[in-house]
Automatic annotation (TrEMBL):
Residue span, Inositolphosphotransferase Aur1/Ipt1 domain: 202-311, 360-399
InterPro entries on file: Aur1/Ipt1, IPC_Synthase-Related
Protein source organism: Emericellopsis cladophorae
Cellular component aspect of the GO annotation: membrane
Cell location: Membrane
Residue stretches spanning the membrane: 26-43, 126-147, 211-231, 243-260, 302-323, 360-381, 387-410
Alphabetical UniProt keywords: Membrane, Transmembrane, Transmembrane helix
Bilayer topology: Multi-pass membrane protein
Protein name: Inositolphosphotransferase Aur1/Ipt1 domain-containing protein
Highest taxon above the source species: Eukaryota
Amino acid sequence: MAGEDWLGDVPKDGWQATHSWKMPEWVEPIIIILILFPSMYLTRRRNYSVFRRDKDHTYKLLDEVEAGSPSPRSSNEFELLPKPDAFPPKTRSLCGFMRIRTPNSSRFARNVHSRILQKFPFLVEMFYWAIALALYRGTGAVAQLIYGGHREMWDSAADHGLALLDAEAYFFGNGHEGPKRWLEWRIQRWFLHGSEAGDYRVWFLTILNRGYALIHIPGTVGFISYYYATAPTHRRFCTVRRTLTLTNMLAFVSFILIPTCPPRLLDEKYGFVDTVNLESAESVWMSGKFVNKLAAFPSMHFGYAFCIGCVFIADSGVLTGLINKAFNYVFRSSDPDADAEEEDDEDLLLKRRSPLVRGLMFAFGLWYPCWILLTIVGTANHYFLDALAAVFTVMVAYVFNRFLLVFLPLEDYLLWACRMDKPIPTTGRMKNLVVE
């Protein structure tokens, strides 16, 4: 295809970000810090002292509550254990097939590190996401091991990327030949030509480049912080958190088994331009030798955005009937009375929002995934099928999010090994729960 006319269609010297701005590498970590630590402080348990251990501690078991199942209908529903030696084992269910007993770490509630967590329970969420980031960092190495080497993995990833483009061209090719049959190529060319001409598209593309780097990690962390503080119930928050976590796990399996080269890393003869790196706008979290550059399918940029958008639409109440039925189906527990009361609490808290706030939440829920879709395609970082796969991944994760409860026994043993008690969350009405 070297002699095709489209080769002369490449903007001279690639893309020149004449209106771009440089951003130091320390900006992103500072943004994360400015999100996490204020969130940790704002969601702290008030009227609770880390160092007040001069009297008998009131211990509270959190068997199902700490797992994200229905929170107690009143503080009296916690089992009070005034004796320090009265800590019976917890009973956990493994996918409903068997029940096992695990250590009860409530006996360690008076330890300083336990009381720090009790004061700042959002630290637990920070720990969960640190684990997810660490697992992502390992997907590239595992994929390389499976495919038998770096070169073999990259060759397979390029083939997978081209296969996605050809599959899309079957529906969106519009009879074009060469790269013009690829919708992603045509969209990026529109930005590149406008950028070369110096019109508004040069600013538009620069915003997309920066958005690709800054929105994915900081935006998702910001959402977790926001929803931890504003979710009507802890049960609702945990379902969203588990959905995001299981989405990550499913995506990581795909990254390992189906490494896929993003359009920007395909051979330059295909005409895609890596605008993010040309503008030095790459995220500090997505750079370095431990980053999997072949993690295009599915797109977690769009997966996170789609999940976040659905949460805002659901909480806006605009589509209350349909979406809440789906939420309540996934939130169901073994206690119908608890479910009914939780649903009443959620409905009451969601209805307190003004019509203006509801409208803005619904509009944001629609706009955010669309903006991310334009970002990942316009910067040649993903294919449309990546986004479609991400939607499917999120939906599967949502339906089966309770699968992650199988890890509760492991968490119990980890807490026991660390001599630490898991804190009572401060989400929803549980923020007013008095803990001594």
